Input
Amino acid sequence: MNRRDFIQLSGMGLGAMMGSSIPVLGNIVTADHLLEPAADVAFKKRMADIALNATKSRGATYTDVRIGRYLQQYLFTRENKVQNIVNAESYGVGIRVIANGTWGFSATSDVTPEGIAKCAETAVAIAKANSKIQKEPVILAPQKGVGEVSWKTPIQKNAFEVPVQEKIDLLMKVNSEAMKNGAGFVTSNLFLVNEQKYFASSDGSYIDQEVHRIWPTFTVTAVDKAAGKFKTRDAISSPMGMGYEYLDGLASEKIAAPNGLVGYRNSYDMVEDAIMAAKQAKEKMTAKSVMAGKYDLILDPNHLGLTIHESVGHPTELDRVLGYEANYAGTSFATLDKWKTKAFNYGSKQVNIVADKTQPHTLGTVGYDDEGVPCKEWDLIKDGILVNYQATRDQVNILGENASHGCCYADNWNSVQFQRMPNVSLRPGKEKLSVFDMIKGVEKGIYIIGRGSYSIDQQRYNFQFGGQLFYEIKNGEIVGMLDDVAYQSNTQEFWNSCAQICDKDDYRTFGSFFDGKGQPSQVSAVSHGSSTTRFNGVNVINTGRKI
Amino acid sequence: MSIILTKEEAKKIIDKVLAFSKADEMSVSLGGSRTGNIRYARNSVSTSGESLDLSLAVTAVFGKRSGTATINEFDDKSLEKTVRRAEEIAKLAPENPEYVPMLGPQTYLETSTFSESTAKIDPDYRAKAAFESIDPCSKKGLTAAGYLEDSSGFNAMGNSKGLFAYNKSTSIDFSITVRTADGLGSGYAIRDFNDASKLSTKSATEIAMQKALASSSAKALEPGKYTVILEPAASIDLLQNMMRSMDARNADEGRSFLSKKGGGIRLGEKLFDERVNIFSDPSNPEIPKAGFSGDGRPQEKIYWIENGVVKNLTYSRFWAEKKGVKATPPPSGFIMAGGTESLADLIKGTEKGILVTRFWYIRAVDPQTLLYTGLTRDGTFYIEKGQIKYPIKNFRFNESPVIMLNNLEAMGVPMRIGGSLIPPLKIRDFTFSSLSNAV
Output
């Protein structure tokens, strides 16, 4: 038994991020309880072995056991008030088996020899029952056991050890500075996650991992009641695979951008961003409404990350390509026949998109995935050509490969693991190029920063993206702020219009903390790195309306 | 212990918990459910499962500080421990200046949300339901991907001021996407009921099959403004998003489509075509709902939009108290009154237009005007002289439900969709802004 509650976010400034709610897993506990140590490794190995033996004796040909303790601390504030603090813990075990060539899964919060034995029995029974209607037996790529190993997100400051009051003080400071600088309203939030995961498999792997993630964010709203107008500006932070040190706001991790804008690499100054946001939300009130037409777009990494996520990340998920998500998320235009030609121009020559679960500070990085595969990096698009997909152990055979890409993830011990997106990032340009120089070369363009409205079709052809900040570029110079901007394109056309990419000094990651997929839906967190990039002649529409 | 407790069993546990309280105020919510699902794709079952959940949440309040703790063990010791933990969390919590004291005893409408036929669903039922959907598709060389989820459970709440509420409910949700083997046609159907005996996965699948076959080899039309017939599966998300934006506080604060230029709110203003009537009613037999909201406020029949006029907005208890008005909770599900014509009648009466099965990936573009973008999916057809002429390629739209409900041409008979009752809508000048190659 386990709770999966949803915090309703209407009025909390996050409504657009994933429908209207975010999941909270497990029981609500005290903040101190989150610091209590997990069960020791020897105990977890003993429990895992009980499951491995129980399933084997019932005829399973493969078994993996995940004993997980999932911790969440979420803080919600508005103006001078704390709206909610959630401390949640979820602890249990999930057992997945192959019997008669078919998957079976069962989970229990009863992490005792009896509970595990019963759960193991159910997993095998489900596999055998489902095998009667199974048409294609599971082909599992080999994975040599890695023995007893451990891995931990390399954090400097465990965010769960920072007193709750210190976090509230920070959010209150963010809110008060935003209000002082012209905000009518402000909501700010801090999301902290710690996954303590133990994985064991019949391949001989016993993997103990501790994963940390953090996401500070806010929404500032400026209101002009006389004009009957309001405008918002969201934080340009990124969720990260880091500890509380992400909030140190180190000057060395800031990147100066045109118009006094600041980009944040691996350290975020939340108060500074809130002050800028308040001023910019007010500026948006009087910004010029865009003239629809073709523009060269200069896309900041904090914006481009979501475009990469939607137009490259999702279409290269092999389960979508094969039709497993047809009834929900959809399928993909990046079909196997296109990939097999070895000549499908996904993008222009400078487009090199890499998948990885190894980049430091990112959300996708772990030592091993949720089926015990050591993590790695591989190319998805090389010199503009589609070269590979994202796959799990039971899928890579379709690609003619004999080792999994390590893309298996479950959002909780009681969710069955399946193919989830690794980090998917655009490699920086090889030649020295700053965003300042890039803008100088643009005659008619728009410089876009931040995550805005986003929508893409079920095969990932046609998309429309908004942003947080839009600046008009005329003859190599920024001439002012624009409003009512959204761009529409087709994935292949868009990536083929990629003209220039800034160098590695401009590289930053963007992240999605609550990416939803599957039925019943599961969330995952993933990063997307890039440098500022130019796309030529993209269709921009005006989204202004009167009601 | 059973998962679905009776009213008496639930009250006994809640009273026991309340008796442990040392707080100024305490509320307890108790819920249990059994949820099962089966998922299939490529004409084969991919996952299936069942989960049981019985859990209790205690909220303790001292002054304006509150704390919540949850548990899923029900012995006296565990219950008392959870009360102490909630009290501990409350004492450490910051003061909430917007805290409103708990409600006393309330009177609720008796509604009928539970159905035996749903409560007795077992894995065999689910396998059969999936088979009845997959089998006709396999036989015709089509590919089915579907998902069925059923749930039966109860919710109860009580507090130290004497409030007690209890409701038992069931639900079943089914969706099916059928694709042609060449990937050029795709069709969709979705159903939801309290009573599983009303669901036929076979007949829903047949509609999706027809749409898949009929949508193959779609032609491209120029983007622009078109008369559309939106099936309820298409209009629900836009209407639901609008209904969720009817919060009074946001409007008063000047950040809502209901905020007025110069200050004030648009309550009482005619914002839509006069034929638009949207209300909620927990005792409607087609979409029965619990008689109480999550915080214990009674749910009653209420008009949100009447003859095109904004009649009521939703209020938090804090905001209602501040404004001196009744604290109307947001409804769960709503009813849009329609006409007497069937979908076929609406098509017959259309000179030129587009039939939309569903919309997909709908996201807010501008909260000020409630402008949304999204795409048509799984069955979009061109209508000419009262007949479906040919399938067309999918479109991206950029449209506001407020504008849409001003451009109303006709409405059909409402049908249940996603827990609401919505008629098929015929709308003029619906804005399609680009084409999509997606099938």
Residues 7-212 of chain B form a domain with the PmbA/TldD fold fold (CATH 3.30.2290.10). DSSP finds ten helices and 19 strands in chain B. Residues 76-92 of chain B form the longest helix (17 residues). The CA atoms of residues 274 and 359 of chain B lie 25 Å apart.
